[in-house]
Every structure is written in structure tokens, then in C-alpha cells.
Amino acid sequence: MNFSHSDYKTLWILFGLACVMFFPALGTAGLVNTSDAYYSEAAREMLLRREFIIPHLNFVPFYDKPILTYWLIMASYFNFGVSTFAARLPSAVCAVGTAMAVYVVSKNFLNRRASILATLALLTMPLYVIVGHVALTDMPLTFLTSVGNLILLLALIKKQTKYLLLAYVALGLAVLSKGPLALVLTAACLGGFLAATSTSLADFRSRFLSLKPFIGLAILIAVAAPWFYAVHIASGGAFTSYFFIDQNLGRLFGKLPSHLYPIWFYVPFLLGGFVPSFPLLTGAPVVFRLRLRQANTTARNQLIVAMSCWLFGTLLLLLLSASKLPTYLLPISTPVAILTGIYLDTIIRLGRRRFILWGAPVLVAGGLFSLFIFPKMFDGARDLYSLAAASTIIFVLGYTAYGVFVLRSQLKKGVVLLYAASFLACASLVPIAIQRIYRLGPESLEHLVYIAASDKDANIAVIEQESPKAAFYARRKVFEINGPFEFEKFLSLSDGPHFVLLDDKNLALMKPFFPTRTDLISKRGKWNLFAMEDLEK
Length: 537
Hints:
Layout: H1 5-22, H2 34-49, E1 56-57, E2 60-61, H3 68-80, H4 84-106, H5 112-123, H6 126-131, H7 138-158, H8 164-178, H9 181-197, H10 201-209, H11 213-234, H12 238-253, H13 267-273, H14 277-280, H15 284-288, H16 299-320, H17 333-350, H18 354-357, H19 359-377, H20 382-407, H21 411-439, H22 442-453, E3 459-463, H23 467-474, E4 479-481, H24 487-491, E5 498-503, H25 504-510, E6 517-524, E7 527-533
Parallel strand pairs: 3-4, 3-5
Antiparallel strand pairs: 1-2, 5-7, 6-7
Helix pairs in contact: 1-4, 1-5, 2-3, 2-23, 3-4, 4-5, 4-7, 5-17, 7-8, 7-9, 8-9, 8-11, 9-16, 16-17, 19-20, 20-21, 22-23
């Protein structure tokens, strides 16, 4: 990878922008959803117990995901203390790292402008920015698979094989992040690319062997297998059975009851979660005018084919899987970003303004529509409403200027304004939205948990899905209420005070089943804190 002084200067500028996007507001909001709490609390408990093999959640084994994300959060806790900032830091670092990998590797295939645009496209995808602000496994997976796939493509297309060790280590760590899905994503990218660009079966075999796959397999096994073996032994085979059979195959074939959605579920998230890049790519087939027989003519064309295979292969897998979540789309952010960089660079070079001019009125209309729904969204949070409205007005003006410059065929200035406005929108509105979600419920729960936990002998009970948040704030195991008939079991715990946390909806359902006298200690938002006393004692 030959980098000039200008390339390094550009890299540092992009690094600074990425840091501005992810780090300033990282810990300003508490835990915002169940998934954010899963990994934050499980890592805290593992660090507390000095447990490095079996993940635990609410102090019982938790087999949903492999170990890497927990290790990363534990390391962050060890260095910075237990906090939401430390829990989310690995996601933010991986988000910045993915952006840097996109620029560094794509620069070997593309000119500087296309690589810069690809990086900016990545940093302005709302879904990408949101996931980079919460503690999930998806961002480490995206970072590691992006590094692995891009380096393997560098070896295939540019014959630079000296980085293959790094690629296979990255893919081994990706398996430790989210399991065999990492290898499926690589197979979609590399397998599809080789199938599309090889001239014969012998050519396919020769190019595949140039990646030294047997050495790569040995590295993958050396990186990932020790922990999988250790957790298999430590859990008596329970992790292996649950994770590979129930979690992976169960989600694929719809055996798990959660996250079951129709095939069109991803459409709004593709349009909104990757705006403005993914919608703009609708004109890419016409602009690229790429035929498979021309794929091997330039490194740029080969990269287009590889990114297309990565994108559509991953989408096909997601569509076929019965279990669907918006965050599952995150691995396609890298190919979408690189295709966008190539696409916009081509449009600027050829002067094809009509392919991106339509984006300006659509983006402006979307911003103006947001201003009308903000009063309801931010009801009771005037400070957040003011910030969101001011940010929206500014980026609407930016999108308007983008349209004016494109209309005048000043495409370079227009595209700069497009991503400047998009950067502002993500950098301001994503933290504001996370803060609003936090205030709508989790903040009240946190406040009441602190009240209950102020008594070190207190027993705390909460609805099961909220137990990771409650345990994180209480810094102790909490009782999980799975139904209205479990209060007697809760009261059979130690003789200390018994506190129950219920939101308004569950309170209405369960209050008739309270077996004892209860006193409302405090109410905040939709959450209620009760002291429960067993009158028979």
C-alpha cells in the first residue's frame, strides 16, 4: 500500500471527522434498549466475577453470542471504569476503524476523490452512526469482516498477498464476534466475485488458491477454536448446542419466536438507514455500464463487481433468513459506501448531473417533513426539540445549496455540500434521538433503580426484558418477573426489603395479583417503584 504525504494528510483529516462523529456524545445517555444493556451488563458481571470464558447476564450463563465483544467491553471497563461510555467505546472505535480501512484499502483501487467520498458515505449513514453509539456485536463484526474482505480482494485484484495474515486473523476474530455469519459474509463477497470474474474453472481454482486458503483456515482455527473449545467444555456442551443450533439455525429457519418479519421488512431501513447513499445508487447500473466480460479490464471495475457481490449476496442471505432486525443490515454499509464513492466520482468526472439532482428536493422535503413531526416526537423535551429543529434547518439549507450547485453543473461543490449537510445531520440528530429514547423510559427506570439499590440489602424485581438495565444500575442480581404469579417466589428471597419496578402497562395487568401489601415509593415517567411486604411473616 503506497501512500503519499497527501494521502496520509487526508487520512488524518478523515480520522478526525470520524472521531467527531462518534466520541463526543457517546456516554451522555444511559442504556437505551435491551440489546445495549445485554452486552454492557454481561461484561460488567464477567469482570466482577473474573470470568473470561462463559458470558453471564444477571449472573446466569448467557449463550447468545461468542466472547469477543464481551472481552472488548471488559477491557474498556478495566481502563475507564464501568459506564455507558466505556461499554460503547469498542463499538465507536470499530466504527472509526472501519472508515479508516475503507479509505486505506480502497485507495489502492481508486483515485483519492473516490476513496474520500466512499469514507464520507460510510460516516453519514444513519444506521451506521446509530450502531456506533451503542454496545452491540454488529459493529465489531462489520469492522473485522470489512478488514478481512478488503485485504483478500487486495490480494486477488492487486496481487498484494503480504497482508493475508492480517485478513485471516481479522476473520478469525469476526467469528469470535458473531459466529459463522462472518464466514458466510466473506463467502458471499469472495465467492461471488471469483464466480463472476473467472474465465474458467481452472482460473477460479488458481485464483482461489492464490489466497492460500489452507493456511488461512489454519489461522482461523488457531484464533477462534481455543475459546469455542474452552466454552464447550466449561458449559458441558450447553453453549455449543444453544448457539449453533438454536441461535444460528433457529434464527435462519424461524424456529425462534422473536424478530420474525415479512420479506419486505428491510425496505424502509435500506432507504432511511443508508440515506443519502443507497437511494442515490439507483442510477449506478446506468452510470457504470459494466458488463461481466469487461470486469477484469481495470481494478476499479473488479472492485465494483466485488462490492456488488458483497452487497447483494448479503442482502439475499438476510432476505432468506426468517429472523430480521435493522442492525443485521450493518455489514452491507462497507460495500454501499465504496460503490457510492465510485458512483459519485464517475458522475463528477462525466458531468452526469441528472443522476443525483433528484436527491436534493427529496432530501429537502424529508427535512421539512421532520420539522412538522418534531413537536410530537419531542413533546416534553423542549431543549432537544430546539437542538433538533436548529440542526434540521441548517442541513435543509445545505441540501438546498447542494441542489443549486448540481443544477448549475458545479458537481464537485454540490457533492461536498451533500456530505457536509449529511455529516451535520448524523453528528447532531443521532445523539439527540438517542437522548430522546433514553428520556422516554430508560432514564426513569434508572432513577428508580438507584433509589431501590441505595439499600444494600434490598431485593429488586423487574419485568424480565428490563432486568439487564436494572442489574447494570443496581450493580447486583435482580429478580426477573415473568408473570403475575411470581411475587410470592420473590418474597421468599432474603429478609431484606423487597422492591418491585413496573411500568404502567404491566402494573395494570399485575396489580390485581399482588399477594401482599404494597406501598408506592416513587413514580417517574411510566415507571413505578413499590415496596412489597409479606404480611404472613
